[in-house]
Amino acid sequence: MFRQGNKLSTSISRLSTLASRAAGVRAKSTLPSLPYDFGALEPVVNSEIMTLHHGKHHATYVNNLNAALEKMSDAMAKQDYATMIALQGAIQFNGGGHLNHSIFWQNLCPVKDVVAPSEANPELAKAIEGQWGSLDNFKTEFNTKTAAIQGSGWGWLGYNKQSKKLEIATCANQDPLVMKGLVPLLGIDVWEHAYYLQYKNARPEYLKQIWQVVNWKDVAARYEAAKKA
Amino acid sequence: MMAAAKMKVLFVCVCFLAQSLAQNLELPRLPYEYDGLEPHVDEETMRVHHLGHHAAYLATVNNVLSMLRSNETTKPLAKMGIDKLLQNLDQVPTEHVTPLRNGGGGFVNHFLFWKCMSPNGTRFEMDDVFGKAVTAQFGSIQALLQEFREKATKLFGSGWTWLVLEHSTKRLYITTTPNQDTPAMQVGHIPILGLDLWEHAYYLKHQNKRAEYISSFFNVIDWKATAARYEEALKQPKTEL
Questions:
Q1: Where, by residue number, does Mn(2+) bind (chain B) (predicted)?
Q2: Which of A70, A195, B51, B237 has its CA 20 to 30 A from that of B80?
Q3: Is A201 close to B199, i.e. CB distance below 8 A?
Q4: pTM summary value
């Protein structure tokens, strides 16, 4: 009687391990394609930077994220909390890197495809003017705050769902904007890899030029979605 | 009498000027030519790194020091010297903390960094005081470099990797710090060797290939200077400046 009970409980625990392992298996993250050629953002961001930024940096975040998630899956199946906690840094870095860059490529477009915010979405343009007085004032404040980021990070235009207002925010490293409780609308990468080959230490110059390739249509689409959500 | 008084005024003015100029930190010269670390570290990087980045940190920290000096309450802070200030950031008014931490840290870190390197490096000596400590505490110089490389590789974002001496225990350890923080922010912790892992330190030559940059650095480490720095640090818990 006792031995049969043991066999049963072993089978049950084996089944539940398999089940939780199956539940933990996730589809792998993949590197999204650029919506344009590597040279499409010239002369603002050159082809060499785009090739490396997308093909090396973003690709590495995706690979490392997948590796970390696989380990997390195993740890979850084993209920190994210590490992789960130890993996959180890697998931934050690489998951954040993947999220941020996926938005970034969409936030930019070739110079010839750029339209003003007022043309992309009059409501967005009005909201910017209402908040900062003018588009130029907004860009000035955005650039000042983003240039001042210590080390690596991102400058963001975000949407605050509680206040229903637009906000400028900065994040360190690859921390996603959701950590500040905002919906990301427009992000500008100021890790040195985003501009160094072309602008070297002149981060303010990069920030001055990048506005020439901001895709306000994409920013507006995100704004509309954020307002509805 | 008038002439004497005028001379006195002039003398005081000159002293005042000399003092305020002396109170400004200066950009140290590199111990070698800009192309001196080729082919391991490229000339262009050395130029931008020294004249662009290090100079910018210098301007930032001198600006903060000047502001601290101009206010009677904060004047004593300015007199502390940059090393001590970095150990006492909690005493600094909030608006000055970030520029001091980043500008001051950036200034001292690069001040040390240039001295960690020399054309083609110099030999590590197993038999000197430093060499014996490395063997005793890490097993070998190879083991030290392996750990150094691992930590340098794992660091996320901008920062530095360091070999540090903790003065009271005489313990050597390897650590990383974010942005321009320095181990010297803790009293008694003296950086002996440092590697800049901000992307600006390697992007022009190596792009995203940090591993290659670490290898290049290993080829130019001035072990002689590092050993001397270690021996000096053993004597007194003081940093570079």
A1: 49, 110, 196, 200
A2: B51
A3: no
A4: 0.89
